[in-house]
Design a protein that fits this description.
homodimer; alpha/beta; Beta-carbonic Anhydrase, Chain A; 5-stranded mixed beta sheet; 5 strands
Chain lengths: ~160, ~160
């Protein structure tokens, strides 16, 4: 299992060098929801340091039931009040239908494909703001990250106040 | 919205400096499933570079339906064959019951709390190996990351071969 051994070896250097951050509550009260895509290093893209933001990732950077579960804890246990949903260009679930993705994967699932980023982001932000137990969230924003240029576009924002 | 502006400003420097990676398929065929915890910089912890691994994150680093959806795409569209589930010490959902987390959050959800990391990791790896549409996964491993020391423990591994 050479890939597993390589991960463990890399960690030895990191563990020796890192600064510990004791508090589990992100000190910028932020949660970032983004895609699992291998070309996104969230800390680097957004200039985040350890201890500043929760990071949630799945296929597409969509607000799923699992994201709501995670944000319930993020808000009520960990003090989050700002959520950024960051989708990206050249995403594998953009421009494909559920039927096509079901055919490719053999999985009879809803894949939450994205036909239009602005519409998908608005839908996802609305889902956060419309979920009663996420009432502590005050500000939401939707970004699109360009995986070729490295730049983000600030597509949509909303707040409760 | 000062936190939103700060994220955008940080990105400007990153976009100018980064190296582009065109291929969406992770070149180490890896997917890492881990917790949203703000103290985990996955790239740094595991020595990953851009383009090497998909990263999936939720509360606890649990294998949920959303993770299975993401891994369906990760395997069949993006070529993943190795999955690492990395949970961590001092996790907010460890040692608490669903009833307690429901009381704190006001959300009537199953939170997938962790009573024992070895048992939770085995359950999560079994769920991956037992999902027919994830047949392309050949190797799975379960790590526990120590958020105080920065070290990982290599708790459990399995392969199909």
């Amino acid at each position: 299992m050479p890939e597993i051994r390589r991960l463990i070896a890399a960690n030895e250097g990191y563990a020796a060098a890192r600064a510990g951050v004791a508090d589990p509550r992100p000190n910028r009260r932020l949660a970032i929801v983004t895609c699992m895509d291998a070309r996104i290093d969230v800390f680097a893209v957004l200039g985040l340091n350890l201890g500043e933001a929760l990071v949630l990732r799945n296929a597409g950077g969509r607000v799923t039931d699992d994201v709501l579960r995670s944000l319930a804890l993020g808000t009520h246990v960990l003090g989050v009040d700002t959520v950024v949903v960051m989708q990206h260009t050249k995403c594998g679930i953009a421009g494909r239908s559920d039927a096509e993705l079901q055919e490719i994967t053999g999985a009879d699932l809803g894949f939450l494909p994205i036909m239009d980023h602005a519409a998908a982001l608005r839908e996802d932000l609305d889902r956060i703001l419309g979920t009663p137990f996420l009432d502590p969230v005050r500000v939401v924003a939707g970004f699109v990250y360009d995986v070729e240029s490295g730049e983000i576009s600030d597509v949509v924002r909303a707040d409760r106040d």
